[in-house]
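Internal tracking record. Fields below are filled automatically when a chain is submitted to the structure queue. Please do not edit lines marked as system-generated. If the sequence contains nonstandard residues, flag them in the REMARKS field before resubmitting.
Queue: standard
Priority: normal
Entity type: single polypeptide chain
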Amino acid sequence: MTAPRAAPGGPVRLVALGDSLTAGYRLPADAAFPTVLERLLKAGGANVTVANAGVSGDTTTGGLDRVDWSVPDGTAGVILELGANDMLRGTDPKVTEAALAAIIERLKARGIPVLLAGMQAAPNLGPDYKARFDAIYPMLAKRYDLTLYPFFLNGIIGDPAQHLDDGLHPNRQGVETIAAHILPTVENFLGGLRQGASR
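SYSTEM-GENERATED OUTPUT FOLLOWS
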């Protein structure tokens, strides 16, 4: 069962489940990723809401602990953006993979499709760690037949003008870039939800 849970004519309800990159760390609410993405989707004609279930500092295991109450009944699909804090802490990629897999399985058991937003490890963690970590997302997408957006931070890495002064988090401009880059993938994901609803 993959039908979007929305009243006839009502909006399709998405939830962005993530960490500070989703939550909008040090940004006003209207500049957070879910709000910006919702605005872009609506500008393209989509009747959709994108709830912000981002928690700054959250890891994949933290996301697993709260997935059941962070994603309410009535959710049509989830944009899953977790793993950056695992990487920054040097967490064993096996732990990250297992937690993400458990989140996906929890959501699938509820009939909620997942768009998986990938993360990539920083080069300073070494080639072995980077190879193991970077492989998690395409592997899970293939295993669970998920829509994959390969790298959530695509378009802003290496550009100080799109980051806060910490050099890690996107500023308002950076969030706009992230949302614009992921938009076509989310639109395709929504198209799949609508097809499911019409079956």
